């Protein structure tokens, strides 16, 4: 499917952002990756485009604010948690009329096996409080391994739990993510992000454990076996 509307991925030069850019572009969705540095964003976009198969959508690179302006309705925030609030402050005025998809996980500094949740309860709720109710925030894509996303030879081995306070915004985000050949589930209001984000630290613990015979695991919602 070919799409005329780009999605923006802020923090698109990081591992998670790069992997998402590759996956969305492969699905035919144009992507603009944002960075604090226009030059870094452009260089990263060129590298990613070289990895794409013929027929994929284009990835371009812009400075964060320009990336938000260039996007259609969806802007994905994929920055380290330390840059979460500052990035939102910098782009807040450009987000009017758009949906922010917050995939940031507030891991404890120096210990990815622990969480350091903000006062609001989760990064998703913190973003909603900072931006105000007029800008819908949707939490999603927290539990997918960056390594998995960047390996286009493999399918994404993770179901996607989506939460947020505005149903229409969630449905739009789920429809876009579904095009990555994954299953999405409406996991409720933004407060559900407290559980969804925290699950990431558990996955990290398992994936680095010597007692577990695999890495880069995701989560799946298992229907009953008949």
UniProtKB/TrEMBL annotation:
Keywords attached to this entry: Oxidoreductase
Organism domain of life: Bacteria
Cited Pfam families: F420_oxidored (PF03807)
InterPro entries in UniProt: NAD(P)-bd_dom_sf, NpdG, P5C_Rdtase_cat_N, STEAP_metalloreductase
Pyrroline-5-carboxylate reductase catalytic N-terminal domain span: 7-106
Gene3D superfamilies with a match to the protein in the record: NAD(P)-binding Rossmann-like Domain
Stretches of the chain forming a coiled coil according to its record: none
NCBIfam families: npdG
Family matches, as PANTHER family: DUDULIN-RELATED, F420-DEPENDENT NADP REDUCTASE
Protein's recorded name: NADPH-dependent F420 reductase
Organism of origin: Vibrio olivae
Lineage: Bacteria, Pseudomonadati, Pseudomonadota, Gammaproteobacteria, Vibrionales
